[in-house]
Amino acid sequence: MSPDTLSTPVVETAKTAPDRARSRAQAARRRKTIVFAVRVLLLVAVLGLWEVLSRAKVIDPFNFSMPSKIWDQIWTWVTHGTALGPLGEQIWYTLYEALLGWVIGVIAGVVFGIALGRIAFLADVLGPYIKVLNSIPRIVLAPIFVIWFGLGASSKVASAVVLVFFPVFFNAFQGAREVDRNLVANARILGASDRRVTLQVVIPSATSWIFTSLHVSFGFALIGAIVGEYIGATKGIGLLVAQSQGTFNAAGVYAAMTILAVVALAAEGLLTFAERRIFRWKPSGSDS
Amino acid sequence: MSTDTSPAIELRGASKIFKTPSGGLHTAVRDLDLAVGRGEFVAVVGPTGCGKSTTLTLVSGLEEPSEGEVLVAGEPVAGVGDKVGFVFQQDATFPWRTVLSNVMAGPRFRGVPKAEAKEKARAWLAKVGLAAFEDRYPHQLSGGQRKRVALAATFVNDPEILLMDEPFSALDVQTRALMSDELLELWEGTGASVVFVTHDLEESIALADKVVVMTAGPATVKQVFEIDLPRPRKVESVRLEPRFIEIYREIWESLGEEVRITRERGAAHVA
């Protein structure tokens, strides 16, 4: 390639450069539109196929329902409310449990992770216990929490906390362990006390580790809240799923799933936004 | 007062033995005697990996000697003192802090009020020519600019003792010469005692009053050379002087042998 570019007269390259840039931008735009169009097409095709197969009774509409029925179900919930009360209230209830559980789990995970990452004695003493606790499939704790804390929000918050705690803890621990030793040495030379090193060197450098766990763990918090509600609750989307299932309303189960997906995606979007603001110092992503 | 007459830095029979991950023992520094006078610029040269850097970590208080004594201003070193500045080989600027905040870090860690720290930091940023960059983050700067930030962040603490561990080895040749000149200018205003570790003999002669040649690892002092080139020096021009070349030849005779030993050992390891 390079011999060609070299042999091109200078005047001509100067003239064609803006054209080339424009055509390149155009091509990039075109590609974006095509990707988006195919994406939408794929969704329409899948939903359409589902609808047609279900209407033609190729798949059992009673078990598999169909997109139009699911949409009707959502619409009914939105306009007339659910059997448990208004839909917004159910969403809010689940979201509240998940958020509270998430916040508590994250704070506990970060504090313990950093503490154990910094204090080798604590890590040595508690290490095996944490491994044992982590090996329990934590979702089985949800029924116990219902027994302990009753049908209210606290049992769901508790199951969200135990699900969130471990991934956050392990990432914070790893983050605290993998701090650049040069940075720590530099901070100490510059006069930082141990506390300052923790607060101003270890925690900032562990944030990128912690943030990767935050994305996953919010999903876990929702799972905790939903499973808790599913087992026993008075309100919430998990209960909605359980009730729909109890009345063999497949459309209801799918509708609740759809609502959950939207809620999870919105939360994910918020988190990404916060992350961009916090990580302005990072070289990755668009500059300036 | 005995402290007034004692040298700025003194190592007496200092040794440092590390445990290797495989459980063995590795002697990085062996029976090291070295004295650095007040306001003196000492360069330490030696083959790569011989333990030069370890010497600096002993003086800084980041590591304790396994045997022997390390004295700073006549006092035994116990932990990181507030007289010491350290410029590292790798980038040690805090990536999440802006340039200004990086330079303010030292004074803030030492409890200087914010406004005063800011003022001092701005003055040093101006001295290293980065006044216009105070709001940037380190990743937005070039390697040379980041080194300048590191220099400003070190000098802002007014260190009496300045330890430098191959600070310019990651820079390209031109930037390196420029930074060496800047370092000399900055240093001449402070009267700090400097220990500058490098594997580049030219750099060491151009900068220092005294060049210490280390043996192949475990490191100990092999020979000390006084550099009688007049100051102020310009790194680019001083290296063309006949006296410079004479000194270079003399020291290389001593250093070259150690480099050869290190190389042969490396070859033996590979074989």
TrEMBL record, chain A:
Subcellular location: Cell membrane
Residue stretches spanning the membrane: 34-53, 99-120, 209-231, 251-274
Membrane topology category: Multi-pass membrane protein
Boundaries of every ABC transmembrane type-1 domain copy: 91-272
Keyword Transcription regulation recorded: no
Region of interest: Disordered: 1-23
Composition-biased stretches (Polar residues): 1-10
Keywords, in A-Z order: Cell membrane, Membrane, Transmembrane, Transmembrane helix, Transport
Any one Gene Ontology BP term: transmembrane transport
Major localization listed first in the record, in broad terms: membrane
GO cellular component, one term: plasma membrane
Family stated for the protein in its record: Belongs to the binding-protein-dependent transport system permease family.
Protein name in the entry: ABC transporter permease
Organism (species): Streptomyces sp. R39
